[in-house]
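Subject: Interface between my chains keeps coming out wrong

I've been trying for a while to get a sensible model of this assembly. When I model each chain on its own everything looks fine, but I need the whole thing in one frame so I can look at the contacts. Pasting all components below, labels as-is. Any help appreciated, I'm running out of ideas.
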Amino acid sequence: MEAAQIPVFRFGYMSPLYIARSNEIAARQLGDEMIVMSARDSTLFSLNNVGLVIWQAADGRTSLEDIVKDKVCAEFEIAPEEALKDAENFVRELAGHGIMRVSDKPFE
Amino acid sequence: MKPRYELCIEIGEIPILVHTDSAEFAGMLHDRYGKFVVGRRAAGDPNIETPGRGEQRAVEYEAEDGCEPESAAPRDSTFNLPVSSFELEVELLPPGMMSDAEEARVRLEGGRWLMERGDFRAECDPEQRRGWVRQSANPYSIDAVLRMLHSLILAREGGFLVHAASAVRNGRAFLFAGVSGAGKTTISRLAPPDVLLLTDEISYVRKDRSQDSGVGSQESAVGSRDSKVTNQKARGGRQNEDRRDPASDGVLSQTPETRPPFDAPLTPGTRPLVPAFVAYGTPFAGELARIGENLQAPIAALYLLVQGPGNAIEDVSQADAVRSLLQNILFFADDKELVQMVFQAALEFAKCVPVRRLVFAPDARVWDLIG
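Reply #2:
Try treating it as a single job with all components included. I did that and got this:
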């Protein structure tokens, strides 16, 4: 799904988003940082600790809402609505470069 | 019979034989690549000129287009090129036939590398090691093709081209990486007479194929503490504490003054630093407008250039080293396998070669810290 097609999601109002790491990448965790390179356009991303948590949890079966609620808000001091909005923007940007896959259904 | 001209341009010990029908274009290439032209031949001339080698070998030359020369004979691989060499056929187009608006792009299609930009189209079969280039009679297009081709060849063997000046001092190579304006040409201009310049713009890095490049170098690798983590996504998270990078194995980095000689054992029971990567001179010049020395040397360090009020060397984390290196590597291909190879090469390089930040004022004293 292209980044522009990702629906806006708010808690409890729309179908959940599911995210999965793309395999069209090269990636390595170095310390607390995840460095990811898109094989599509060689764009380089450097994920901080919050981005790393979302990245590691992107197994294709867990909704973004659950990831934010259970992993991000639980570990960091961020308001849930704000965290989810940021997470949506985050995955949208990664999806635009082919680094993350997003869907309104779990990936098989 | 169409005249034919051939030049062998060798960079990084990778020769590429360029064929053209134009004497002027051949002359342009010869002037541009200078000491990197290791052999050339003109139509009707049975001899190969090998600049700097002082010998000529008589060879047989086979005519094209069905015409028989006076001394027809099977064509020899007259440059005695290794099997691994590449050949490019250059077809010159009239000016104005191509646009200069597009960005460079490389893709793999049907097993062939397709390279294109507004001013040229090129294709190369990596297995057959043959390809062609269509461009107008200018040196910039073929220069870009050569860079692209070398970056693809290097990617397959764990090497790369990188936006960096490089120079040899006391038999070791030092790289100075940074984008335009970072100071690559400046630091090249400031080099003292005992320094041999490999390039002021694009450095050529290959794995050292002559030695066991196993990791005895961890003890001297940079990758120690750095309290700052690059944060591309602003929200949340604890502040990262000042901590050691696990990749450094807990060893503090060393300053040039405290670091033992390059080839000395660091502590009892450890292996000496083994050169794992080698830098080669290139003809790819920047603002210095001067091709580099056709030399090679093991890489002792890569410095990330930052201009500042004084001269100092600072540690960087392994993550910063890898990220900065990847940001400066030249790579064009939209190919997953090659991208992964380049990524892996950067990781390996940062693991084996000290990567540090060099803050420097634009004066020659910076070279007191180097080598």
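Reply #3:
Confirming on my end. The longest strand of chain B covers residues 296-307.
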